[in-house]
Amino acid sequence: MLLCTLAAYVIDQLTKAWVVSTMSEGQVIPVLPTLLSWRFIRNPGAAFSIGTDYTWVFTIIMVVVAVAIALQVRNIASWGWSVALGLVLGGALGNLTDRLLREPSFGQGHVVDFIALPNFAIFNIADSAVVSGVVLICILTLRGIGMDGRRSSDTQAAARAADAPEGRTGERDGDGR
């Protein structure tokens, strides 16, 4: 989890530093024409620039998310959950750094976004990490894999076996009893 958190955070901060130092705000650089370009903007809101007047709310939300994930570290015994939560945490911390340290003020800083796809939002590496982590969380949840690495069917079977009277597992024998 720590490795994924650090990778997402460091790559996010390095790419933002690169954009700020090499591009002017509003500048567009085609990377793969008609498919991908770098477009430097400063986003005061959330995805799709929603809530631009409530920047401080997003700062609080990111702090709460980061603390909630950090509190779960001891419960995680699954590689999948480690990667997923590491990506979400790294992305949240990347954008939180912008909110805390970038203009216009502490806690209300604008996030540097630069990855532009046609007819879509402009985003950054932190956003990509958060979305990738959330997608992985959804997949793990749909597959019934808990943070402890067990499938929910394994956990339910163990609970049934523990609750069954001695010598019986709650399963029917060949006669249907």
UniProtKB/TrEMBL annotation:
One of its GO terms (molecular function) is aspartic-type endopeptidase activity. Pfam families: Peptidase_A8 (PF01252). Residues 156-177 are annotated as: Disordered. This is Lipoprotein signal peptidase. Keywords: Aspartyl protease, Cell membrane, Hydrolase, Membrane, Protease, Transmembrane, Transmembrane helix. The active site is at 113, 127. InterPro entries: Peptidase_A8. This protein specifically catalyzes the removal of signal peptides from prolipoproteins. It is a multi-pass membrane protein. Its EC number is 3.4.23.36. The chain crosses the membrane at residues 54-71, 78-96, 116-142. Residues 163-177 have a biased composition (Basic and acidic residues). It is found in: Cell membrane. It catalyses: Release of signal peptides from bacterial membrane prolipoproteins. Hydrolyzes -Xaa-Yaa-Zaa-|-(S,diacylglyceryl)Cys-, in which Xaa is hydrophobic (preferably Leu), and Yaa (Ala or Ser) and Zaa (Gly or Ala) have small, neutral side chains. The gene is lspA. Pathway: Protein modification; lipoprotein biosynthesis (signal peptide cleavage). The keyword Zinc-finger does not apply. Belongs to the peptidase A8 family.
